[in-house]
Design a protein that fits this description.
Elements: E1 9-10, E2 53-54, H1 59-68, E3 73-75, E4 91-93, E5 100-103, E6 108-112, H2 117-126, E7 129-130, H3 142-147, E8 164-170, E9 176-180, H4 181-192, E10 200-207, E11 209-210, E12 213-223, H5 227-235, E13 240-245, E14 251-261, E15 273-274, E16 277-279, E17 302-304, E18 324-331, H6 335-343, H7 346-349, E19 353-361, E20 376-383, H8 387-401, E21 407-408, H9 418-423, H10 428-438, H11 447-452
Length: 455
């Protein structure tokens, strides 16, 4: 229960965490301000409101920085498209707080918050393990990803925060608290998707599974008519399935199918059609006309899970580069109707659009997750970098989706009014109370949280 708080307050070093040399920062990168950290988010649409940014190399340094600043916000891999991590005062970048410790007995891995999934995955794979899911971009950090319930895809796959077993963070007073799924239950589930409101995450323990191999294949031109009766069958046809569309001509331009395989299987033939869509003849990028070189391998080739689950390779600039992103989640049972509602706006959407991706995420029990309590279908927009025009359009899309109880992605651009947003999260009051208990003076509060969380 939330009222029965387990006060396992820690002020201990996490320097014993096993680190791999490829992930370690030099010890000299201490708690000084770091002018080398970019002052824009990944896509460049947001310039942060402060030039005061700290870059600790250890959790101990993060504690000292939090204690010495009256207002501060944690900064991850800068892949949010709105002001969730912005601050007028100071930021603390956790990208140098890394390290990996695998517990083969309990099938978990503990990582520093700044560790990217693309850094963690090969290490897991080499030791015979995997994560159950990955996002489409391997570049994002574990600590930042779970804060917004960023998700990956698959009818049976929960978002990445659902793998969290233990969360360690620095509270506003500089004390370190560790919350675990096994011991803290309701409070833990409320805290995992934390929106940066509770403190600065230093380490995360994730559940891991035995490693596996996958193959990826793409089909072209799937009629939307097929989705009316077959949405679940299509989206559940493999471990992960994504539809891409420009909303024109009543069709998904591409269907990306990622399936688990046995590398020793005898029959590797690919079906020439998938619900009327035709098998690709060459490697494809989701956005027509862009080089497919940055994309993970397709055409049915078999490889490790971490080289197939993402859409883009770690060594390349992902997606279209300078872009904007918006994403909305509706119950999967309403997915077809929601898509058709958005389609009515196609002639306003397409001129501003690079591509839309449609995917599924399994239900979870984390109250601040977009997928809490319901099987979800995601409608993701990758926009051209014209933010005024995109923001002018978003209310029309949101209005079309409100009858389905739409929830926007916490880390992407949306215009939904705060009163509607808060109503989509029945435990918002409990989350706000937890945030206040961890941060009574509002040290981690910013305009984003004031706007979307505070009454």
């Amino acid at each position: 229960m939330l009222g029965l708080m387990n006060r396992r307050e820690l002020l201990r070093s996490v320097g014993l965490l096993l680190g791999y040399s490829s992930l370690n920062r030099l010890a000299g990168a201490a708690e000084t301000q770091d002018a080398a950290i970019p002052r824009t988010n990944w896509s460049g649409n947001l310039h942060y409101s402060t030039d005061k940014v700290f870059a600790p190399a250890t959790a101990e340094e993060a504690v000292s920085i939090v204690r010495s600043n009256s207002k501060i916000k944690a900064l991850g891999s800068r892949h949010c498209f709105n002001d969730i991590a912005d601050s007028n005062y100071a930021q603390i970048s956790m990208r140098a707080v890394k390290g990996i410790k695998i517990d083969t007995t309990n099938k978990t891995v503990t990582v520093g918050a700044g560790t990217a999934y693309g850094e963690l995955a090969p290490v897991l794979d080499q030791t015979g393990f995997a994560l159950a899911n990955l996002a489409s971009l391997p570049h994002i950090s574990v600590g930042g990803t779970i804060a917004t319930a960023t998700h990956g895809s698959g009818i049976a796959n929960q978002n990445l925060a659902a793998a969290v077993q233990t969360l360690r963070l620095v509270k506003a007073d500089g004390s370190v608290v560790e919350l675990s799924q096994a011991e803290d239950r309701d409070r833990f589930r409320l805290a995992v998707v934390h929106l940066g409101a509770l403190g600065v995450v230093t380490h995360v323990t994730l559940a891991i599974v035995p490693r596996f191999d996958m193959a990826q294949v793409v089909y072209e031109n799937l009629s939307f008519d097929q989705l009316e009766k077959n949405l679940d069958a299509i989206m559940g046809a493999a471990y992960s399935v994504s539809l891409f569309t420009d909303w024109q001509h009543n069709r998904a331009t591409q269907v990306w199918i990622k399936r688990k395989v046995d590398p020793n299987e005898a029959d590797r033939s690919l079906a020439p059609e998938f619900y009327g869509a035709t098998l690709q003849q060459e490697k494809l990028h989701p956005v027509a006309g862009l080089s497919a070189e940055p994309c993970t391998e397709q055409l049915g080739s078999i490889g490790p899970w971490y080289l197939k689950l993402p859409h883009f390779k770690m060594e390349f600039t992902p997606s279209a580069g300078r872009e904007l992103q918006t994403e909305y989640f509706v119950p999967r049972s309403e997915g077809y109707r929601a898509m058709r509602a958005v389609e009515q706006l196609r002639d306003r959407i397409t001129p501003l659009l690079f591509i839309t991706e449609i995917r599924t995420i399994a239900v979870d029990q984390m109250p601040m997750s977009m997928h809490h309590g319901r099987e979800s279908l995601a409608i993701h927009f990758t926009w051209k970098p014209d933010e005024p025009a995109v923001r002018q359009l978003l209310p029309s899309i949101e209005s079309a989706l409100k009858p389905f109880g739409v929830r926007p992605h916490w880390g992407k651009i949306f215009e939904i009014e705060p009163s509607y947003l808060r109503a989509q999260y029945p435990q918002m009051d409990q989350f706000r109370a937890l945030a206040t208990s961890f941060d009574p003076t509002g040290k981690f509060r910013n305009k984003y949280l004031e706007r979307n969380m505070v009454s």
